[in-house]
């Protein structure tokens, strides 16, 4: 009986259709769910991997910079004549005292991450440190764990070790605890070598907690640092995984930049990077459970839906078998329930229903995953940043801009005027809402005559790509459209904006030129004022720089006026400069750069001396300056100059001021000699610590930095104006060793003395002008 019924059912077209749909629909839905899941995972790789790689690189840069700075200090110490004399002894002359060496080592503690510096001598196994007095033997020193590394120090030019400062035992995976009062450090060791002989070592100890407190982490991921031997360097507490689990992760990663790993049954994305300075391996683990939670739920729902569909198909087949001999009209009436006319009635009509379901699902999935306005905006941003190739650009243009024509394109830049005032009046959430509303107004106003794409440019700017529709070629110009936007934004949002209009271009890759022209036109807001639209083709574009009468010596004149003149004279100086600029109609970009230099120099001067600045300049930035017109920039300069002048006047009669002036005079008269902190302190009959503190407070600089900068400036004059040898110049500015002079010059001027002389020989002026010493009220005027 069953075989007969089964054979009968298979001969029926409707039953075969149900069987086919019972197989096809679940397979189709399952395939769509799995495909969507795989696409999401693929997109997750791209979106999640990039920021984690960037974060690892940032942390690498943080640690590398700290170790480079510490290594530079170690190298400078190892080449110091006094240190070499102590390590190897001298045939003539005296060996520096322990106190002199400790003072010198203390003077090198300029970096905040450096905990201490040890100077080790192999000859008599003694050590001098910034952390304890005297010159004890290694075994008697309060910190001597490094003594076990002596053979490694002799064999390696650079050694980095993690340990505990003191005699409480070293830390690591085998011993993560330390005694109370001890400090965990990372020791960087440089051997002191002369003539191929290793006579001692310089040990620079970096504070472990201070160094790693500067690293950045996401709240949801974990970061680890391992050394070349696979030992865990960071973190040291609250480890989320065991050592064996992390070794398994490293083994799975090998040398790949990223991979998926499993730890304790959980999926993680592992990224890693290697330091070229320390050889360390940085590893980050990002849990994927929460990130994949929603898409996994969607996938499971689709799978469940496919099972339900299969169940429905099986139920339909069962029902058909049950009602096989009922009239076909009743079956069609059940399938067409709710319709006025059941029509001819056929199970084949079910195909149209399924096609509509699947089609609607695919369309909704694509709409959910891809938003056309966002894709267009992203493409324009990639073109402007030159982050996309021509072939990919053309492919995306054809895909995203199918309704655009071959008509010319142009860029507009809409900039909020007085952005500093705008940012102060509104909270960040309100600013975002206002910019969103402004974007909607721009789209609505341009829609009748223009095709447009909007995207954010800077904090205060919005960039718009325009293409005229056929009806706009004669009805509305670019400037008319920009004027309507300015009026609408002022009316609805009560915001003042200025608009720059770039020239027309024929192809998408050329919009960079139109964008640059729009920025150029917008910059003339400096002279023309707020709330205007400026077309690049109508602007009188000038490339004039700051006049030489103003550019040469402006910094000296400014500092001299602030320090020696009254408030009124300082304000008059700023106004005179602004009048000269306005009268010459100088290119706005050059004016903004000059005003920014003025502002930054005065702010640096205030910061170095601890002077207060007006509230209007608490959050000064270059972007906020470029949204001002000339009168507002002038008012801001006058406000700052007047404030600084009043503060300086109140400080000039203090005893500390006079004392600091005596120190500077002594240095300017004796910079050729081998003077240091002790000689300067003797000159003013005070202690070293008191002299250093007073000088730092009054000038904003250390004595060492000021003296070095003074010597470098004198060296620049000799290099430019004389033909003396570098060795002779080094001796004349107080350096007994030519190599030490060259290193100091390169660090201060970013080039060698020979390169500096060669550059000035051909150019007639500084290619890299000497930095003015920002040391409080005693500027070189």
From TrEMBL:
Keywords: DNA-binding, Membrane, Transcription, Transcription regulation, Transmembrane, Transmembrane helix. Residues 661-759 form the HTH araC/xylS-type domain. Signal peptide: none annotated. The chain crosses the membrane at residues 301-320. InterPro entries: CdaR_GGDEF (IPR041522), Homeodomain-like_sf (IPR009057), HTH_AraC (IPR018060), HTH_AraC-typ_CS (IPR018062), Tscrpt_reg_AraC-type_HTH (IPR020449). The keyword Metal-binding does not apply. GO terms for molecular function: DNA-binding transcription factor activity; sequence-specific DNA binding. It comes from the Bacteria. This is AraC family transcriptional regulator. The lineage of its organism: Bacteria, Bacillati, Bacillota, Bacilli, Bacillales.
């Amino acid at each position: 009986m069953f075989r007969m019924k089964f054979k009968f059912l298979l001969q029926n077209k409707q039953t075969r259709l149900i069987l086919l749909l019972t197989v096809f629909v679940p397979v189709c839905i399952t395939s769509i769910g799995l495909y969507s899941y795989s696409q999401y995972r693929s997109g997750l790789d791209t979106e999640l991997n990039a920021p984690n790689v960037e974060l690892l690189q940032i942390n690498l840069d943080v640690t590398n910079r700290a170790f480079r700075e510490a290594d530079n200090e170690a190298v400078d110490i190892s080449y110091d004549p006094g240190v070499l004399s102590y390590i190897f002894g001298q045939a003539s002359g005296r060996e520096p005292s322990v106190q002199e060496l400790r003072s010198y080592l203390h003077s090198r503690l300029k970096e905040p991450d450096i905990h201490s510096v040890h100077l080790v001598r192999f000859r008599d196994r003694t050590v001098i440190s910034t952390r304890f007095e005297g010159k004890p033997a290694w075994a008697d020193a309060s910190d001597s764990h490094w003594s076990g590394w002596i053979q490694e120090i002799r064999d390696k030019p650079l050694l980095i070790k993690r340990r505990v400062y003191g005699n409480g035992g070293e830390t690591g995976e085998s011993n993560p605890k330390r005694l109370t009062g001890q400090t965990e450090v990372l020791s960087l060791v440089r051997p002191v070598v002369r003539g191929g002989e290793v006579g001692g070592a310089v040990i620079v100890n970096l504070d472990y907690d201070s160094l790693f407190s500067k690293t950045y982490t996401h709240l949801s991921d974990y970061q680890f640092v391992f050394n070349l031997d696979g030992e865990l360097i960071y973190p040291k507490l609250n480890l989320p995984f065991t050592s064996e689990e992390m070794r398994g992760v490293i083994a799975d990663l090998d040398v790949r930049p990223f991979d998926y790993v499993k730890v304790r049954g959980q999926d993680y994305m592992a990224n890693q990077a290697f330091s070229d300075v320390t050889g360390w391996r940085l590893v980050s683990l990002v849990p994927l459970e929460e990130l994949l939670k929603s898409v996994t739920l969607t996938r499971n729902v689709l799978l469940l839906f496919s099972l339900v569909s299969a169940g429905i198909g099986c139920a339909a087949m069962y029902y058909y078998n049950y009602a096989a001999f009922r009239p076909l009209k009743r079956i069609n009436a059940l399938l067409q329930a709710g319709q006025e006319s059941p029509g001819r009635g056929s199970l084949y009509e079910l195909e149209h229903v399924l096609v509509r379901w699947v089609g609607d699902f695919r369309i909704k999935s694509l709409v959910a995953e891809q938003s056309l306005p966002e894709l267009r905006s992203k493409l324009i941003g990639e073109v402007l940043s030159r982050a996309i190739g021509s072939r990919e650009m053309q492919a995306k243009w054809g895909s995203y801009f199918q309704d655009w024509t071959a008509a010319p394109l142009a860029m507009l830049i809409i900039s909020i005027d007085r952005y500093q005032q705008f940012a102060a009046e509104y909270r960040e959430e309100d600013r975002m809402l206002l910019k969103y509303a402004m974007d909607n107004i721009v789209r609505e106003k341009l829609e009748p005559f223009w095709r447009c794409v909007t995207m954010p440019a800077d904090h205060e700017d919005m960039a718009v790509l325009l293409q005229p529709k056929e009806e706009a070629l004669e009805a509305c110009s670019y400037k008319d459209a920009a004027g309507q936007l300015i009026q609408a934004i002022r009316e609805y949002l009560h915001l003042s904006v200025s608009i720059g209009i770039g020239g027309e271009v024929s192809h998408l890759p050329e919009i960079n030129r139109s964008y640059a022209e729009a920025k150029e036109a917008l910059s003339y807001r400096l002279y023309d004022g707020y709330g205007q639209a400026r077309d690049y083709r109508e602007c009188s574009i000038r490339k004039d720089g700051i006049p030489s009468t103003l550019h040469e010596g402006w910094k000296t004149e400014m500092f001299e006026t602030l320090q020696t003149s009254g408030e009124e004279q300082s304000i008059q100086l700023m106004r005179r400069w602004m009048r000269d600029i306005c009268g010459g109609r100088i290119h706005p970009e050059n004016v903004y750069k000059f005003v920014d230099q003025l502002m930054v120099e005065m702010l640096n001067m205030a910061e170095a001396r601890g002077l207060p600045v007006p509230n209007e300049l608490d959050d000064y930035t270059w972007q906020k300056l470029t949204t001002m017109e000339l009168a507002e920039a002038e008012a801001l300069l006058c406000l700052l100059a007047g404030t600084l002048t009043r503060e300086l006047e109140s400080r000039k009669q203090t005893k500390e001021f006079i004392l600091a002036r005596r120190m500077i005079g002594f240095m300017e008269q004796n910079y050729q000699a081998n003077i240091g902190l002790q000689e300067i302190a003797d000159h003013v009959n005070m202690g070293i610590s008191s002299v250093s503190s007073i000088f730092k407070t009054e000038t904003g600089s250390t004595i060492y930095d000021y003296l070095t900068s003074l010597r470098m400036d004198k060296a620049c004059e000799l290099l430019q104006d004389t033909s003396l040898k570098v060795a002779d110049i080094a001796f004349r500015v107080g350096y007994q060793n030519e190599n030490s002079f060259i290193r100091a010059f390169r660090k201060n001027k970013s080039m060698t003395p020979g390169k500096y002389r060669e550059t000035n020989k051909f150019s007639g002026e500084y290619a890299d002008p000497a930095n003015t010493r920002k040391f409080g009220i005693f500027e070189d005027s």
